[in-house]
Amino acid sequence: MVSLSKFMTSVIEELRLEGRYSTAYIYHYALCAFTNSQGGGEIFFNALTRRTLKRFQQYLENQQKCYNTISTYIRALRAIYNRAVDRELISGEIRLFTGIASERKLAITAQQMNRLLYEEKPKEMPQQIQRAQDILKLMLHLQGIPFVDLAHLRKNDLKGDLLTCHRQKT
To answer: Which of 82, 83, 93, 103 is the most exposed place for a label (fewest CB within 10 A)?
Structure first.
């Protein structure tokens, strides 16, 4: 079983290799603060509960950390937790950090995204449905480009590996 400490350390290293030093820095200090709040040592994912997160917040407040720091550290832990769920290192269909009803189940999971993008579809579907699915795949590959922007793309907007998109008002 991969611990929270080891997983977070590996993610921090990945971020550094990607050149995302600021994010790695925040994750590092969030890990240090959370580890200290738990008394040190290796931390496992089962230590992340609503109760320990509340104690962690209390610990940071007692350390006289500002609200922005507390919020940043909690968001870093949430990002790590969700990344572990997405990589199926831990089960977490009900995400630990989603306390507001409007936040639940708005985004599709990584498995659903992979099924949409890479699963082979039957060929006997009508051509209009296949075309709609291809457009959806393109929008997802273009990281959620709005349809209105996709509709206004021209062939000359693609130069080599660079796609230039001019935003359109809806």
So the answer is: 93
**Token couple for 6:** 């080891």
pLDDT tens-place string over residues 86-96: 888 887 655 56
143 φ/ψ sector (left φ>0, alpha ψ -120 to 50, else beta): left
Distance between CA atoms of 138 and 129, rounded to whole angstroms?
14
For residue 149, give Cα distances in angstroms to 24, 139, 152, 170: 33, 10, 5, 9
pLDDT digits (tens, 9 = 90+) for 96-150: 665 433 344 556 777 877 887 788 777 788 888 888 888 888 888 887 788 888 8
Question: Residue 111: what pLDDT?
Answer: 80
pLDDT of residue 127: 85
Cβ-count burial 148-167 (b if 16+ within 10 Å, e if not) = eeeeebeeeeeeeeeeeeee
Maximum distance among all alpha carbons in the chain? 63
User: Which amino acid would we find at residue 71?
Assistant: S
